[in-house]
Write a structure and sequence with these properties.
The protein has 427 residues and is mainly α. Helices cover 70% and strands 3% of the residues. The protein has a 3-stranded antiparallel beta sheet, covered by helices on one side.
């Protein structure tokens, strides 16, 4: 056994234990959400939980493979891995299989593979590779645009496949850019655009303009002695804000599809017609309403494993995939849901802690990419299931049913585990 292999055995077992707890608890909830009738065998391949157990077995084979590869391999071949992942996304337009209106899968016999799940770790590697280049300077516009291009390419390819949920995940890389030197003004602009978009849709352009004017000129008057905004700059910013709000309104009305408009309308309570609102609740909001009722029925301690009436009654559509957290809420209650939240928080914080301890910029950037992707997935999925954000089809890592998602998240995480185990060799 060589020196690198010997030292590589020092994996971060806290991360691995957190992974095992999430995967194990996730499988129990998949069993609850998918079982039909009496459970006679955990390996019943006619049931989703039986198939997921096979996926789990293959996952551990995958982990062994990832950890057995030299750590430098991931940095050395990051660009090639990224290109292969992008070609796999492009190939979907020719050989892809339509599932639920999205052309995001390759059909292999009775199985399907979703390349977008693997494109996440490939993009994280490519971003880490580019940003760790000695010639990259995130303070220059040229390098900023190149870094953004790396995440825009997969995002656009996935969006064209009608998978808006997976597209949103790529916004997580802006946290990485910020950590590596991106100016705060970009985060301020991003936050402002979100606020303006919500205000514009909720209250209209005029009220949004008034709110923006009060804030902008408030900043002008309070900071004019500190060389803040000039009056001309304030007026220009106000015009940009109003124009942006108008553009968002037009985009909402003329670009978004009806079901997307309805989801946003329900979230922001825009619809005032009682008849249409009732119809929307029966269609676009049906999953959400059933999910909220399942979660609220769990109370503090839940109804017990395999005892959720709404879960066993199949009231919540897609409960074993995007709405798996509603199973947690119903059967394990507030306490069980809190444990899941704490496990995810612990995993993300642990990854960030390890990322900061890395000796190479490549490993640090990749670690931040991993943590950011998990954070976005967890936040959007749980927020969607509880009605805090608009309904978006996005899986909960290690919980939602599916081999592609499980393997994609596992590869994402354990490449970092391997990189972290090799940090002693990076001096």
């Amino acid at each position: 056994m060589n020196r690198e292999s010997h030292r590589g055995l020092k994996f971060d077992w806290i991360t691995i234990v957190l992974f095992l707890l999430l995967v194990g608890f996730g499988w129990l909830n998949i069993m609850s959400a998918s079982h039909e009738g009496e459970i006679t065998s955990y390996f019943d391949m006619s049931q989703l939980y039986g198939k997921q157990l096979v996926f789990l077995g293959l996952t551990f084979v995958l982990i062994i493979l990832i950890l057995s590869i030299e750590a430098k391999f991931y940095e050395r071949f990051a660009s090639i891995i990224y290109i292969i992942a992008m070609l796999a996304l492009v190939g979907l337009f020719i050989f892809g299989k339509d599932v639920n209106g999205a052309r995001s899968w390759y059909g292999i016999g009775s199985m399907t593979i979703q390349p977008s799940e693997f494109a996440k770790f490939a993009t994280a590697l490519a971003v880490a590779k580019y940003m760790s280049d000695l010639q990259t300077d995130m303070n220059t516009l040229k390098d900023q645009l190149r870094a953004v291009a790396i995440i825009i390419v997969p995002a656009i390819l996935i969006l064209l496949q009608n998978d808006a949920g997976s597209t949103l995940v790529y916004s997580s890389f802006f946290f990485v850019f910020y950590r590596e030197g991106l100016q705060q003004i970009y985060l301020a602009i991003a936050l402002s655009t979100i606020i303006l978009a919500v205000l514009g849709l909720k209250f209209g352009i005029i009220i949004t303009g008034i709110i923006a004017a009060v804030m902008i000129f408030g900043i002008y008057f309070f900071r004019r002695k500190k060389k803040g905004l000039s009056i001309v700059q304030s007026v220009v910013i106000l015009l940009v804000c109003v124009s942006f709000s108008a553009g968002v309104k037009l985009f909402y009305q003329h670009v978004l599809k009806p079901h997307q408009q309805n989801r946003i309308s329900l979230w922001l309570r825009l619809e005032k017609d009682p008849a249409k609102l009732e119809q929307m609740k029966k269609e676009e909001a049906y999953n959400l309403i059933q999910s909220e009722q399942a979660i609220s029925s769990g109370g503090w301690t839940g109804k017990g494993f395999l005892q959720g009436t709404r879960t066993t009654g199949k009231f919540v559509p897609e409960q074993e995939t995007d709405y798996i957290f509603s199973t947690v809420g119903e059967e394990w209650g507030f306490i069980g849901s809190s444990v899941v939240v704490l496990l995810f928080m612990a995993l993300i914080i642990r990854i960030l802690y390890l990322a900061e301890s890395q000796k190479s910029q490549f490993s640090r950037v990749y670690g931040y990419g991993v943590a950011s992707i998990f954070f976005i997935h967890f936040t959007i999925n749980t927020g969607m299931v509880m009605g805090l954000i608009p309904t978006v089809g996005i899986p909960l890592p290690f919980f939602s049913y599916g081999g592609s998602g499980l393997w994609g998240f596992t590869i994402l995480l354990f490449i970092f585990v391997k990189l972290d185990s090799n940090k002693i060799n990076e001096w």
